[in-house]
Amino acid sequence: MWIYEKKLQYPVRVSKCDPMMAKLLMEQYGGADGELAAALRYLNQRYTIPDKVIGLLTDIGTEEFAHLEMIATMIYKLTKDATPDQLKAAGLGPHFAAHDSALFYTNANGVPWTASYIQAKGDPIADLYEDIAAEEKARATYQWLIDLTDDVDLQDSLKFLREREVVHSLRFREAVEILKEKQSEKRFY
Amino acid sequence: MSIQLDEAYYSLLHELQAIDFVLVELQLYLDTHPNDAAALQQFNQFVELRKRVVHHYETTYEPLLQFGRSNMPVSSWQWIEAPWPWQV
Ligand SMILES: [Fe+2]
Predict the structure, then answer these.
(1) Which of A26, A84, A174, B12 is most deeply packed, by most CB within 10 A?
(2) pLDDT digits (tens, 9 = 90+) for B32-78
(3) Domain count, chain B
(4) Per-residue b/e over B18-31, b at no fewer than 16 CB within 10 Å?
(5) Is residue B38 a part of any domain in this protein?
(6) Half-sphere CA count of B41, side-chain side, radius 13 A
(7) Chain B contacts of A55, Cβ < 8 Å?
């Protein structure tokens, strides 16, 4: 089961109301390489991955939900004081028409999240390479997002998330090596 | 009792977040390096440190965990009263 802890993994502060940036951040909320996709991808793969890697998928999958909450907090804080006119000017008119100021799992273009963003091949190497690629894509997206804002408080939180993707990618690469070692051990029996 | 969102609150929260960062980092590291004795020792050290800071946080402010997982008796239902993470 999962237990909710009532705090963010890392502080999220924003220095201004910025619905335009909120719209861009939705890419990491409900986008193909976003945090929802990451959490659901890893937690779903863990049931059939070799035992040696289940712990890693469980722990990284859980951490991704903490990142999802950080992104939600950013979007919430960047839009909570925005008027409908400001939302419209930021390109969030269609979002506002459908959801008011509620968050929704879409990418930056308003396309709803879909399970076809993620894979579960049942082949451990294929799944882990998918995970490594997902982490690298998320890292790249965080870099573009950092480049798209001049809000230093927001940049600080985004840099934290970018660095987490780097660590996740590294751990998944190590998991591949662990599985390769196990495979070659078997071959020499 | 409502939480005073002052400097003391944020500094204690940050202290806890910093400790938790180390623990998350060590947890993932140990998942792929389970035989690293130094990492295990560091993990245990931070678990102990965390207990003290969590106790301080929960007795000063509110329980951190739902479903009775927090180690403190409750005299009032602070869970729904105190602000949520995106509100602080
Ligand atoms: Fe990640």
Answers:
(1) A26
(2) 999 999 999 999 999 999 999 999 999 999 999 999 999 888 888 98
(3) 1
(4) ebbeeebbbbbbbb
(5) yes
(6) 3
(7) 31
Give the sign of the dihedral formed by CA A5, CA B28, CA B56, CA B13.
negative
Question: Among candidates B3, B44, B49, B11, which has minimal Cα distance to B26?
Answer: B44
Tally of domains within chain A:
1
Point out the residue among B21, B27, B64 whose CB comes nearest to the CB of A7: B64
Nearest CA in chain B to A68: B86
Q: Tell whether A156 is within 8 A of chain B (Cβ).
A: no
Range of the domain at B48: 7-62+74-80
What pLDDT sits at residue B72? 82
For residue A75, the chain B residues in CB contact (below 8 A) are: none
Condensed to tens digits (0 to 9), the pLDDT of residues A12-67 reads 999 999 999 999 999 999 999 999 999 999 999 999 999 999 999 999 999 999 99
Residues B81 and A17: beta-carbon distance below 8 Å: no
Inter-chain residue contact B28 with A72, CB threshold 8 Å: no
CB distance from A60 to chain B under 8 Å? yes
Q: Which ipTM value was assigned to this complex?
A: 0.96
* A171 at B interface, C-beta within 8 A: yes
Per the domain annotation, does A149 fall within a domain? yes
Token pair of B12 as six digits: 């204690």
